[in-house]
Amino acid sequence: MTDQADKPLTSTQRAINELRQLIFSGELAAGSDHLESELAESLGMSRTPVREAALTLESQGLLELRPRKGVRVLPVSPDDMREIYEVLTELESYAARQAASAGYGAKDMAALERAITDMEHALDAEELEAWAEADGRFHAELVRLGGNSRIAAIVNMLNDQVRRARATTLYMRPLPLRSNEEHRGVFEAIKRGDATAAHDIHHAHRRHAKKMLIELLERHRLRSL
Amino acid sequence: MTDQADKPLTSTQRAINELRQLIFSGELAAGSDHLESELAESLGMSRTPVREAALTLESQGLLELRPRKGVRVLPVSPDDMREIYEVLTELESYAARQAASAGYGAKDMAALERAITDMEHALDAEELEAWAEADGRFHAELVRLGGNSRIAAIVNMLNDQVRRARATTLYMRPLPLRSNEEHRGVFEAIKRGDATAAHDIHHAHRRHAKKMLIELLERHRLRSL
DNA sequence: GCATATATTTGCGTATGCGTTAAAGAATGC
DNA sequence: GCATTCTTTAACGCATACGCAAATATATGC
């Protein structure tokens, strides 16, 4: 696990990482346009690696390249949220079912349980950022245990797309108490090998999240984030 | 519908289209390596657009860029088939359910029905290529009716990934008679608004296809295609 | 002979330059 | 005024150039 291998990283990779950060942090606002040359200058590199990074991020659904308009940070509308949560609901609960069928031991599930206890502690302390981080780990680990790398890749990509929206709603929503119970329920179901329960609990979990988020966005008239 | 708009198309777009064709046709064999400069020369353009195209196709799961080894056409293993069909099964049957709930009229479903009758005719005439083409249309149209653009995009991408494998197995497998019945069943269920039936029939349909294909690959010792 | 060190090759990552062309502004006609 | 055409501008698409580093070939030591 100590393969630091800190090789200098290519400019394209740096550009991808930095642009992602700028998007997630909101420094590049949703809907805003940015010329390739401006981005290149601000990142201290030429247009070529910025363009390649933009192409990659476009395929991940974070950006849109509009010739002569600049690179546009894609906003997320309530309808986008619906689409994304529909996919997350179906694929993650499938992964939960598969994980339950796989017969994992306590060791395999250590990371998953850790994410849950972290969430519980964060919730007690009302540290929402820490909760969100652990929640992200829970879902990533769940799909990993599902044993389908494509599902994992899709889920991670879609989670990136709604990251900003989640961050802004984090302080608007009620404390995710129910959410935590559901996580625990999914975990227990996988542990005892109950595939149907794992699927159904997780399915309900994501449906609740979707409903709550979309209502929140519409109540606050947030047509895009 | 007559917006030909035959604008000259950028070199990058040409490269994407042509490389896709070369991959699907097998002219660029699975697992084969190709230098960027070779591809550029054979396409009559410089490395830049080829690189951009390769980056795009890499994000679609068709290629892999391995520095100094060349651009590699990704082979599809039986396990890849399992993963891909698992995703297709879940997302398409969700789309079928949604399509059934949407209350479409005959007009909305014309393209779907057309794909089915085309498959039936192709099957009678034992024209497998034509059958495969219409089958592709059926699945693309189904997810379109599902009303979730992300599902449509994912499904189309994954179908591209297994296109070569499907083409090679097309003549090894029994005539897809059952398949046609299932298509018809899904169509009827959507038409009468029976969401559960639409979901379940399509789910079974894809599970059958997955099972048949994987068994076929393993029986013929096709470890990658 | 085999292992290691050194030299050479060459493909890629990135910078740079330029022609094309879409968009914005100015000018003209109505 | 408003629409239309002409002019200007500048961002992008792509070609090209080049240094670096990985891969291969060659040389050297044991």
Biggest interface: chains and residue counts?
A-B, 20 and 20 residues
Shape of chain A: globular
Helix content of chain A: 55-70%
Mean pLDDT of chain A: 93
Summarize the helix and strand pattern of chain A as letters. HEHHEEHHHHHHH
Taken as a percent bin, the fraction of beta residues of chain A is under 5%
What is the end-to-end distance of chain A?
37 Å
Number of E-state strands of chain A? 3
Structural class label of chain A: mainly alpha
What is the subunit arrangement here?
A: homodimer
In what order do the strands lie side by side in the largest sheet of chain A?
A: 1-3-2
- Main sheet of chain A? 3 strands, antiparallel
Q: Over the alpha carbons, how many angstroms does the gyration radius of chain A reach?
A: 19 Å
- The number of distinct helices of chain A, counting runs of at least 4 residues, comes to 10
Contiguous uncertain segments of 5+ residues of chain A: none
What does this structure look like?
Two copies of one chain form a homodimer. The first copy, chain A, has 225 residues and is mainly alpha-helical. Chain A is built from ten helices and three strands. A three-stranded antiparallel sheet of chain A has the order 1-3-2. The first copy, chain A, is globular, with a radius of gyration of 19 Å. Chain A binds chain B through residues 51-52, 55-56, 59-60, 82-84, 86-87, 90-91, 94, 148-151, 154, 158, and chain B through 51-52, 55-56, 59-60, 82-84, 86-87, 90-91, 94, 148-151, 154, 158. Chain A binds a DNA duplex (30 and 30 nucleotides) through residues 10-12, 35-37, 45-49, 51-52, 67-70.
